[in-house]
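Need a sequence for this fold. Nothing fancy.
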């Protein structure tokens, strides 16, 4: 087949795949469905796995616990139809001399035309049955004769993601031919990168540990030296060993991470070049009496973080700082001190929280703390009138907001939810933006609020510890502060994982704690009952009420009106309600020191970090507390995941475990649009690569002919 002549003005790797020999319009359309539009896209199409076609496993030794590759001849095949032809199963029987293997595909009768008796077939999968040996919906590839067999046989053969109508064998041959033609034209994205990458001792910043520690941290000591980009792309597709394939992945991941880190560092330099920081360091006239009235002494970690924040607020550039602290570590007090620094300097502060419950709690706390200092506080949420509307209604409205009737100016501290990013909120002289529970907001929402002022300082806080790889990528443009110490006098929190059949004993245990005068949370994953075995808060409320009578239970979920939520929370704080039956709405911002029991049903439905956040609602007083996770999961992996919470209360260890088990996509959700999709980088295991990329990004010159694929992962 003759390829379309390429345009001489377009670099070879940037030319459309339709210009490659053997790629006609139909094949080009199929490749486009895989997002393979240029020659470079094709060369960076990462195999899902490599199949060892040097050593196929005998059919007699296949197992149900491990996927493997076998090879045999088709001895029989056919389609069986039932339910009057509406359902079907296509069955293929292979024989390799050691045993027979039955391969079945349900409701895919057209597969019959792809095989014939006598065909030599590779098959990959795990057994679904032993009598006879059976695989359901395995991956297959017919062995064909021809001069290209050296590409497909007796090697580690790449197995690619495909689309309908695109054969594995055809795509593998296309990649081979394209590599043969264009490998010499693949270059490193930046000058001098190859020599740095292929050095046997990568440069690692002091924060990352020594170079030898970086070497040891990689599996099997692979990081002795990484290949050139061109050689890495060949090894990506056609490696000699599995270790070669992993080295290739690491090299291409490093290019991605360098591109991201260069972008982060460039944005930071541009930002600092055009933005001057407002002088918001304060003069202590409010902070000193505030700390004196607190009734407790700040921890050493809180004091250290406040020094870092004050240094930023007095610095030449606007603060961009992420404050991490485990649940109960005292981030709110640190935020209050930061707010007072800005207020002392004559600036307005905006604090945004993800829920009305948390915003309301902040409003109550800050009003109590700041009232004696003469610092007014406003609340602005979807269910509250804006400050402007309230002031227009007269002194009564102002009093409701914590303003004195004589005050003509807006309050210097405004606390709210997403309502703060709406057009109605136009603060005067905005000097500091504080965002609580940052992971609940997207990057774009953060920027919307910051743009309400002219380069205000920014402090984002999270009680969900961020895995280090995410901290260096997703929040790489922020400086990091960590409160790694809990206040003294907190009761111990013990965690237990229990099966659903233990619920009667659990109810009895909770009843005993209520008899002692304590309170409890009972959390469910759903508001209303849906298909499946998941419990819903509305349907289980009566069960909880009956199990814990005569104690009073209150119901809390997101579909209640704001006034109802406020009334229920007020009753729980006052101990007029002893049991709060809720959804994960209580995950953040609920602080009731007398609550010492947290029962979570269908616990396997929550992420580890979210369960840790929920657990953080207890243990906030001096009494010993208990978190009980009820799970009906039969999956051993799900049970093992919950055991992590039994073993540790360290939020950072839990966050790392959550990342490894669930991956960054599920951990972050769709809101965090600021992180690119990496082709080769793996945020679960590439911490040292990211650290190295950060250092290399600082060393590489500003200019360079960067490859599009390395600069911006698709």
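Here you go.
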């Amino acid at each position: 087949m003759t390829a379309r002549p390429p345009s001489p003005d377009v670099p070879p790797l940037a030319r459309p795949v339709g210009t490659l020999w053997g790629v006609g319009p139909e094949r080009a359309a199929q490749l486009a469905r895989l997002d393979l539009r240029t020659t470079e896209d094709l060369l960076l199409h990462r195999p899902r796995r490599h199949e060892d076609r040097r050593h196929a496993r005998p059919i007699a030794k296949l197992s149900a616990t491990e996927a493997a590759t076998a090879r045999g001849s088709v001895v029989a095949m056919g389609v069986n139809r039932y339910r009057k032809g509406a359902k079907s199963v296509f069955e293929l029987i292979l024989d390799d001399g050691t045993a027979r293997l039955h391969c079945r595909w349900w409701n895919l009768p057209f597969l019959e035309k792809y095989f014939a008796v006598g065909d030599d077939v590779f098959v990959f999968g795990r057994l679904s049955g032993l009598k006879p040996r059976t695989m359901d919906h395995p991956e297959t590839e017919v062995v064909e004769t021809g001069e290209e067999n050296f590409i497909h046989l007796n090697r580690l053969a790449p197995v690619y993601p495909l689309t309908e109508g695109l054969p594995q064998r055809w795509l593998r041959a296309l990649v081979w031919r394209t590599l043969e033609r264009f490998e010499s034209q693949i270059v490193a994205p930046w000058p001098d990168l190859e020599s740095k990458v292929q050095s046997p001792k990568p440069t690692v910043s002091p924060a990352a540990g020594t170079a030898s520690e970086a070497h040891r941290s990689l599996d099997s000591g692979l990081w002795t030296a990484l290949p050139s980009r061109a050689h890495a792309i060949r090894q990506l597709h056609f490696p000699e060993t599995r270790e070669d394939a992993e080295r290739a992945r690491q090299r291409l991941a490093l290019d991605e991470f360098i591109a991201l880190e260069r972008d982060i560092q460039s944005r930071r330099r541009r930002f600092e070049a055009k933005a001057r920081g407002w002088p918001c360091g304060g003069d202590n006239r409010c902070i000193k009496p505030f700390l004196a009235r607190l009734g407790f002494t700040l921890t050493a970690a809180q004091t250290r973080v406040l020094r870092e924040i004050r240094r930023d607020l007095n610095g030449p550039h606007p603060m961009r700082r992420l404050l991490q602290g485990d649940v109960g570590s005292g981030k709110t007090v640190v935020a209050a001190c930061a707010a007072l620094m800005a207020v002392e300097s004559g600036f307005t502060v905006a604090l945004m929280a993800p829920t009305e419950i948390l915003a309301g709690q902040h409003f109550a706390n800050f009003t109590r703390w700041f009232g004696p200092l003469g610092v007014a506080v406003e609340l602005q949420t979807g269910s509250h009138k804006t400050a402007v509307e309230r002031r227009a209604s007269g002194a009564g409205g102002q009093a409701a907001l914590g303003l004195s009737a004589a005050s003509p100016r807006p309050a210097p501290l405004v606390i709210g939810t997403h309502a703060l990013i709406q057009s109605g909120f136009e603060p005067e002289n905005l000097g500091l933006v504080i965002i609580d529970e940052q992971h609940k907001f997207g990057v774009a929402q953060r920027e919307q609020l910051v743009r309400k002022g002219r380069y205000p300082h920014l402090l984002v806080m999270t009680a969900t510890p961020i895995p280090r790889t995410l901290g260096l990528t997703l929040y790489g443009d922020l400086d990091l502060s960590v409160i790694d110490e809990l206040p003294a006098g907190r009761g111990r929190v013990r965690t237990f994982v229990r099966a659903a059949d233990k619920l009667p004993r659990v109810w009895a245990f909770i009843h005993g704690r209520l008899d002692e005068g304590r309170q409890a949370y009972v959390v469910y994953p759903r508001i209303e009952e849906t298909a499946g075995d998941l419990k819903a808060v509305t349907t289980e409320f009566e069960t909880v009420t009956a199990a814990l009578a005569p104690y009073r239970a209150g119901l809390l979920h997101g579909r209640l009106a704001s006034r109802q939520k406020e009334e229920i929370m007020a009753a729980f704080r006052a101990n007029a309600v002893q049991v709060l039956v809720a959804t994960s709405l209580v995950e953040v911002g609920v602080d009731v020191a007398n609550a010492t029991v947290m029962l979570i049903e269908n616990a396997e439905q929550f992420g580890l970090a979210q369960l840790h956040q929920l657990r953080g609602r207890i243990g906030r007083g001096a009494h010993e507390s208990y978190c009980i996770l009820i799970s009906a999961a039969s999956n051993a992996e799900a049970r093992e995941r919950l055991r992590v919470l039994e073993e540790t209360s360290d939020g950072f260890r839990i966050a790392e475990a959550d990342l490894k088990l669930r991956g960054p996509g599920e951990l972050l959700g769709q809101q965090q649009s600021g992180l690119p999709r990496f082709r080769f980088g793996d945020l679960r295991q590439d911490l040292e690569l990211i650290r190295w990329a950060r250092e290399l990004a600082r060393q590489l010159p500003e200019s360079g002919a960067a490859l599009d694929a390395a600069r911006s992962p698709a």
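For context: Residues 81 and 135 are 19 Å apart (CA to CA).
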